Amino acid sequence: MTAQIRLPAEDTYRNELDALIANDSGTKPAGWAMSPRAAVTYLMGGTAGGTEITPKYVGNRRLIETAVATLATDRALLLLGVPGTAKSWVSEHLAAAVSGNSTMVIQCTAGTDENQVRYSWNYAQLLAKGPSREALVPTPLFRAMEEGKLCRLEELTRMGSDVQDTLITVLSEKMLPIPELNDAVYARRGFNVIATANDRDKGVNDLSAALKRRFNVVVLPLPDDMDEEIRIVSKRVAEMAVSLDLPAPKNVTVEVARVLSIFRELRGGETLDGKTTLKSPSGTLSTAEAIAVMVGGLSHAAFFNGGELCADGLAPTVMGAIVKDPVQDKAVLEEYLETVLKTRRQYSDYYSAMTDLL
To answer: Are 13 and 114 in a shared domain?
Structure first.
């Protein structure tokens, strides 16, 4: 057990990556750690020699094949979807498989400026010696270009449109001008960009047409199938329970299914049998939120409920995921409780627990 809360993917799954590389007979693009086919196996699961490769993404294999194929070209990759569809997770594991390094990442925010994307300066060096390469402070994008690695840009549309457009020269010319030095950085083979963005966030900055043309877009959807979503959530909850030293009660999968049925009905605007139309809350109630709810429930069970995972412990986090707007979402939840959960005997504990909290 390491002292770190979370290790990068290339360290966590080092044995799997080493096995894939050792047994890889495919053609590797320049600068890649493994072939595209091996990279897809790393994401989707399989075997390499005698080593089992655990699936990192549960979903449509063709989407991952398209993403990997894009990275083997001169086009950047944009992973698009609603919040909680594993965009960042897939981005990290793609970088780990292709470059062996997933840590060259820029977290885009409303406060991100050009210096955080291109490069900045060590002002002590700048004042002492003037503009020089020694005084220049490279960003993850700068280092990725120099080393021929993948750079990840998380939540690209949160960054201002004028700052986004600083990427146009990098993506089209594969070079980064340094006008202060009358110089430029030219990307080595293996360099590319993986960006993520969601289409449900408030206040996003749309990409310019010029920037959009430089990305291939892969849309990661929410799971269509209930059983598939249960598998995804159960797997991630089990992994996180191990990393957080939390015991996993025997009824985890049962509670995952009950929480997901609530999420899917509110998310879809109708009951699972299609007989009752419902109002949807303002949030997305994504797979990622279901994982967070269950991990919170495991923590409560371990420390405050004698290891028992039950509706009383899960209800506050379920409500926290649903009620983002204290007026609108509370009314949606109240209606759902009275018209749906109240009539279901197997959900009486959730009905009682959440009604008490409203």
So the answer is: yes
